[in-house]
Amino acid sequence: MAEDKPDIAWRVIGGLVGLVTAWAARKILGFVWTKATGKEPPVDTDSPEVSMGEAIGYAVVMGVGMSVAQIVVNRTAKKRYDAWKSVKQVTPGH
Fold this sequence. Notes:
Blueprint: H1 8-37, H2 52-90
Helix pairs in contact: 1-2
């Protein structure tokens, strides 16, 4: 059975989308954390100056938030890429 080669264009686009999503999600979640707690997000959750509850809360918010953002953006980007790719293949002369 022939193995499908990964679509190089999607791998590049997906990687870039992942980087931008991670950066944007971190900024947004940091802003939300600041508004909700009145404090800046902890820089070093291992620091004894950060309470255990705050460190765990921040880890949970960041972990869940980043995962959800990645899932939503990756699925949306993949659907749009696949739609663009199928239109491009059907268009005569391309």
